[in-house]
């Protein structure tokens, strides 16, 4: 009878349901094979970038796989906060355990963790599937992997729509905030939507607005970002880098142009998208039970969208000065301007790429 409880799990069976979450069957198969053969230390606080190398995936695809596995009870999630003083990893098993002012359990230094610097995410095989011995906690092995592949930052997991959808309970406490050293934010809105509702009626206009949301959400996910919120016809999306935000902004305009063509929208129905983007430090917070961002960077990004005339992409120096973004803009006609932005003293430089 004892042998029944000591049997190793059939990982093919355990991971079979991952396809329900968009995980390709061959990826699930490779994951199951790795779980079957991995050593104890490989299954404890796994760095997703290490697993990505083992499975031949990128970080984003690996996070999608692990989030699905987390929902199915195959793995558990850890929010590891690295002390900037002594380097100790302070473990939290829930996002709600992170504070804007933390104390290291080793050196007792107090520090304000950044979501995109000190906060990392790791995953461990669930104990119901295989109990890991104390020797699995091999600190040197994990440090070697972090040094070779780089850690997966907490911000990258929060920018995954699958995580937001499957784990709405994973939030910072409402009165807490974590600093983000750099967030790249995109704001969009539809020009003339009020006239569209008046001319075509609410049902038709709402249908077109929903189609436009579908396009914007898909583009954000494609470029390693997520739509943080939508208000009326507008959205706010967040990305890992200025270049990713710019790629998304350009693709959003292209997607709306394609939507207009695909739906054969006449001039009085054609959707006109206004886009503005900016990058900089901000706070990650919980508002209305959802992850959100707060601060001057957010305000500037929203105001820059207000400068857009439609069919264009307007951005600040914080985007344009990024070396990857510069490569994306090479050969494009760019109009430069300085504008007054509400709430910001003086004028700021903005740059416009006209798409249509």
Describe the structure.
- There is one protein chain.
- The longest helix has 21 residues, at 202-222.
- The chain is built from 14 helices and 13 strands.
- β1 and β2 form a beta hairpin.
- The strands form 3 sheets. Strands 6, 7, 8, 9, 10, 11, 12 and 13 form an 8-stranded mixed sheet that branches. A 3-stranded antiparallel sheet has the order 2-1-5. It has a two-stranded antiparallel ribbon with strand order 3-4.
- The protein has 2 domains: 2-163, no CATH class; 171-354, Alpha-Beta Plaits.
- α4 (48-55) crosses α5 (59-71), α9 crosses α10 and α10 packs antiparallel against α11 (242-262).
- Helix content is 39%, strand content 26%.
- The protein is an alpha+beta fold and 356 residues long.
- The radius of gyration is 23 Å and the shape is globular.
Structure summarized in a few sentences:
About 40% of the residues lie in helices and about 25% in strands. It contains 14 helices and 13 strands.
Count of all domains: 2
CATH architecture label of the largest domain: 2-Layer Sandwich
Unreliable stretches covering 5 or more consecutive residues: 1-6
Mean pLDDT: 93
Query: How many distinct helices?
Result: 14
Order of helices and strands: HHHHHEEEEEHHHEHHEEHEEHEHHEE
* N- and C-termini, Cα separation: 72 Å
CATH C-level name of the largest domain = Alpha Beta
Question: What would you call the shape?
Answer: globular
Strand residues, percent:
25-35%
Rg estimate, integer Å? 23 Å
SS elements, strand count: 13
| Helix/strand class | alpha+beta
- Stated plainly, the CATH topology of the largest domain is called Alpha-Beta Plaits
Largest sheet: 8 strands, mixed
The CATH homologous superfamily of the largest domain is termed: Nucleotide cyclase, GGDEF domain
Helix content: 25-40%
């Amino acid at each position: 009878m004892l042998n029944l409880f000591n049997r190793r799990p059939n990982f093919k069976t355990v991971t079979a349901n991952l396809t329900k979450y968009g995980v390709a069957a061959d990826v699930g198969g490779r994951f199951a094979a790795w779980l079957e053969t991995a050593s104890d230390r490989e299954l404890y606080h796994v760095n997703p970038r290490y697993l990505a190398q083992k499975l031949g995936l990128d970080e984003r695809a690996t996070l999608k796989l692990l989030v699905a596995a987390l929902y199915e009870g195959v793995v558990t999630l850890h929010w590891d906060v690295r002390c900037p003083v002594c380097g100790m990893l302070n473990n939290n098993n829930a996002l709600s355990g992170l504070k804007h002012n933390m104390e290291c359990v080793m050196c007792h230094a107090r520090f304000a963790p950044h979501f995109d610097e000190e906060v990392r995410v790791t995953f461990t095989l669930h104990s119901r599937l295989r109990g890991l011995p104390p020797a699995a906690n091999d600190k040197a092995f994990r440090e070697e992997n972090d040094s070779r592949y780089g850690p997966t930052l907490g911000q990258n997991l929060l920018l995954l729509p699958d995580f937001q959808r499957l784990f709405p309970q994973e939030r910072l406490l409402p009165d807490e905030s974590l600093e983000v050293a750099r967030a790249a934010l995109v704001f969009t809105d539809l020009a003339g939507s009020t006239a569209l509702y008046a001319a075509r009626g609410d049902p038709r206009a709402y249908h077109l607005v929903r189609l436009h949301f579908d396009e914007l959400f898909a583009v954000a996910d494609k470029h390693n970002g997520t739509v943080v919120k939508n208000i009326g016809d507008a959205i706010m999306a967040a990305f890992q880098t200025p270049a990713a935000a710019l790629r998304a902004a350009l693709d959003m305009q292209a997607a709306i142009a394609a939507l207009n063509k695909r739906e054969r929208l006449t001039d009085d129905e054609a959707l006109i998208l206004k886009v503005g983007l900016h990058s900089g430090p901000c706070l990650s917070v919980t508002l209305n039970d959802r992850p959100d961002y707060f601060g001057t960077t957010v305000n500037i990004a929203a105001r820059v969208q207000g400068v857009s005339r439609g069919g264009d992409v307007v951005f600040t120096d914080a985007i344009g000065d990024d070396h990857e973004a510069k490569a994306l803009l090479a050969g494009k006609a760019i109009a430069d301007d300085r504008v007054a932005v509400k709430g910001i003293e003086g004028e700021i430089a903005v740059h416009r790429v006209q798409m249509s």
